Amino acid sequence: MIYLDYQATTPLDPAVRDAMRPYWEDRFGNPHSPHRLGREAAAAVELARDRIAALLPAGGTVSFTSGATEALNWAIKGSSGPIVTLATEHAAVLDTADALARIGRPVTIVPVRSDGLIDLDAARAAIVPGTALVAAMLVNNEIGVIQPVGELAELAHAVGALFLCDAVQGFGRVDMPATCDMIAVSSHKIHGPKGIGALWLRDGVAIEPLLHGGGQEAAGRSGTLAPALCAGFGTAAQRMTENRQADGLLVERLWSRLTTPLLADGWIINGDRDRRWRGNLNIRKPGIDAARLISELRDIAFSAGSACASGSGRSSHVLKAIGLSEAEARSSIRLGFGRFTTEGEIERAVAMILDAATRQRMWAESPEAAEGA
Question: Residue 32 forms beta bridges with which residues?
Fold first, then answer.
């Protein structure tokens, strides 16, 4: 299997697996207990917290969560007042905002341009005095574009609002803006385990708890932490620090290997071509049925968009937001790659995709297909 779905999840780094193993075996203590086993577990949690914090702005607190969805829900629901966000945000932001709008909290959804980037003039018109929270994704999970979150944070601060950054796809890969007030991150998008994420809060920022109970985390989140997951997340963050340059160079090579033959065959890149994370290629070709292509190419793992919406039958809201028609959205595929992808895998995948797309178009144009229609 050639795995090209890095935006959905990433392969577990072997170093992460090794770091977690002791906390599933003999170091099983509750990190909130006072005895030796508890203190050993607590030490592992704090080391992990420090390693994650090293990839985030100075002067803040990392609170562990069950994942980025919880972190985003906590940041949005734990704040108050009018919300401004973008039309291309993850469902964890848009659906949370919609739920709050239904009970009376004002929400403004700002459209994006055809390249997937926010127009700062449109953002300026929406972020007005009285706005309490602005939420925007650093690297889009579907089309890979990098939003100007630093500028958006400045607009938020100019009217007294907090700025929340969904940094899940960019964490450890692109520079983290120092002007954020809250940042949500996820472990399994950086070669760590699933089931753990974090919310970073700038010093002085306080929000209401989403989960009530023991209040184990400094920012008020309740629940017993899993030392194994924390240790895995921390090691994954450390590995992102150690491998950032090598990972970036590899991604650039793989991007070129992918785009050169696909663009030559008439495929079109969705989203801005330059201001993006190149480990995400969202691309379309007229007349292609993406769902059928995915079904036919069973030796390649890739997608037509967000894994969170893959079972809904709906086309991507992100592709619709950048102005694609229903047909164009349904002819788009997303190829994600990174640390454990080889150039040989990319070359084989491209050949298979081009061959399957050619056969699909030939069938669509054949007399038999016309008669069946």
Answer: none
